[in-house]
């Protein structure tokens, strides 16, 4: 879409309003963000993809989960999670343990090696974010954090098209 300038020089999507252009910009910039996140994840730990990093973080945060819980939480196909879990197990980063409440169920947990890998990558990611955002005023950082939480609280459509309920609130909003 081409953009035309309005009298106040705000670009507007052809046939649209400034809000339409803003939505297009958000979509484009979030796509760029996602591409950079995937690329940087590979540089920070070559064997740890962004999906793997995310799964490890969730397992640490929740003190273990079933693979089906991971798939549901991240709206991923079970086969995708299965491949990731297998790779993480082969790398010695996670292990399966029998659920003490239901011996038919296996729960995924980080190994000590997995915790160390996650800690190293997390610290590198924090450092990279701090460097990139170092010259942002605190007010902008707080506002950006709140906007991201608000955006990510939108419910995810499941395979049946129904949306899960969003989790209200967050740290910044």
From TrEMBL:
Organism per entry: Streptomyces violaceorubidus
SUPFAM superfamilies: Winged helix' DNA-binding domain
The name this protein goes by in its record: MarR family winged helix-turn-helix transcriptional regulator
Annotated signal sequence range: none
InterPro entries hit by this protein: ArsR-like_HTH, HTH_MarR-typ, MarR/SlyA-like, WH-like_DNA-bd_sf, WH_DNA-bd_sf
UniProt domain HTH marR-type: residue ranges: 23-153
Annotated stretches, region: Disordered: 1-20
One Pfam entry name: MarR
Top-level taxon of origin: Bacteria
């Amino acid at each position: 879409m081409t953009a035309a300038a309005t009298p106040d020089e705000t670009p507007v999507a052809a046939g649209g309003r400034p809000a339409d252009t803003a939505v297009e910009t958000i979509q484009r910039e979030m796509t760029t963000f996602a591409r950079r996140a995937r690329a940087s994840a590979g540089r920070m730990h070559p064997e740890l993809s962004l999906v793997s990093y995310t799964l490890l973080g969730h397992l640490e945060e929740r003190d273990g989960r079933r693979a089906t819980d991971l798939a549901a939480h991240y709206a991923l196909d079970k086969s995708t999670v299965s491949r990731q879990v297998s790779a993480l197990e082969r790398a010695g980063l996670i292990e399966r343990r029998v659920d003490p409440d239901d011996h038919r169920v296996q729960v995924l947990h980080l190994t000590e090696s997995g915790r160390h890998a996650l800690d190293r990558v997390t610290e590198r990611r924090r450092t990279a974010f701090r460097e990139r955002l170092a010259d942002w005023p605190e007010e902008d950082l707080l506002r950006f954090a709140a906007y991201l939480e608000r955006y990510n609280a939108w419910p995810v459509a499941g395979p049946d098209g129904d949306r899960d309920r969003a989790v209200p609130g967050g740290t910044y909003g």
